[in-house]
Amino acid sequence: MSILSERPTATTLPVLELGPRFGAEIHGIDLGRLDDDQVLALRQALVRYKVLFVRGQHGLDDAAQIDFGRRLGEVTVGHPVHDSGDVAPEVYSLDSQDNGFADVWHTDVTFVPRPPAISVLRAVVLPPNGGDTSWADSQLAYESLSPGLRAYVDTLTAVHDGTREFGYYLAQRRKGRGNLWEGEAFTELRPVEHPVVRVHPESGRKGLFVNPGFTSHIVGVSEHESRGILDILYAHLTKPEHVVRHRWQPGDVALWDNRSTAHYANRDYGDQHRVMHRITLRGDTPVGPATAAR
């Protein structure tokens, strides 16, 4: 059952829908001054629209961003591997001058057993133009597959591995000593398995849960079959009708549901500076259709 029906609220947020079923802007609110009903309504809207954009949050700094996150859920450390540097431990700073790019389609930190549920991203330094971010709706993508392909991918499991992206950083820059993640020292990038189709724990909807950034292969099929299946799913996931694109402005904050989206940040601004600060909220173990049906 959806959280929307389990916990109804009279609070209505000023929502501007960006598409028929995916993405929305919310105007006229201050994320640092929400009451409890507004926080609940925002969480409900996030499950429904999957990615929300809130403009004009010029007063939000790292501390206020973290405080806001704690009202939505349990804030994690910024990243299992990356050193937080001169920002708070809960903040992951994506700085283009320190290789802070995200120019591959991915869902945040799926290479751990319990990937983050929600991410909150704040624009800190923006280039004069460029650096847009796009999000893909994994539930809409799943639902628009042919029935036969949906039935097949419902049965599949995939391996997620962060080695390609973060292996060198962990071994060389962190000397094998990452951060405390869910109470344990993160010292190695061990591949994990997740269902290819994830059942959302709040809405009950199914969505594709594979991404080019961290998914290495499908379990139980040949390498060529795995590559073919994943290529089909990636191409379908990122079709224009499944995607919303955000052009950043100073004061913007984006919130998205990692359980139902993937995203990509354009790297088209040359040597101009771009800094984004992200926090994540603790998630749960992904569940596939077979497990959810029990």
Automatic annotation (TrEMBL):
The TauD/TfdA-like domain, residue ranges: 17-280
Entry keyword set: Dioxygenase, Iron, Metal-binding, Oxidoreductase
Lineage: superkingdom: Bacteria
Enzyme class label: oxidoreductase
Molecular function GO terms recorded: metal ion binding; taurine dioxygenase activity
Keyword Iron: yes
Cofactor(s) essential for the protein: Fe(2+)
A GO CC annotation given for this chain: cytoplasm
The enzyme's E.C. designation: 1.14.11.17
One Pfam assignment: TauD
Family: Belongs to the TfdA dioxygenase family.
Protein's name according to its UniProt entry: Taurine dioxygenase
Naturally occurring in which organism (per UniProt): Streptomyces griseoloalbus
Organism ancestry: Bacteria, Bacillati, Actinomycetota, Actinomycetes, Kitasatosporales
